[in-house]
Write a structure and sequence with these properties.
single chain, about 60 residues, alpha+beta, two-stranded antiparallel sheet, 2 strands, about 50% helix, globular
Length: about 60
């Protein structure tokens, strides 16, 4: 839990996109706030893309 908190703090302070996905379930575990500023997609938009079997993120999880 401490490592996860450290990751979250670093990701939120930095201006880069950081994310964590549970590939077994496809669930988005974390998405840094920078995603919306840099790409124009809200975390909800990204989560919806994970549910689309044709999306690049779904393909990434599929291996």
């Amino acid at each position: 839990a401490e490592l996860a908190e450290q990751f979250r703090v670093i990701a939120e302070i930095g201006g880069d996109i950081a994310f964590s996905i549970d590939c077994a379930s496809g669930a988005l575990r974390y998405l840094s706030p920078a995603i919306e500023q840099l790409l124009g997609y809200s975390p909800a938009d990204i989560a919806a893309q994970l549910g689309d079997p044709g999306s690049a993120l779904a393909a990434l999880c599929a291996g």
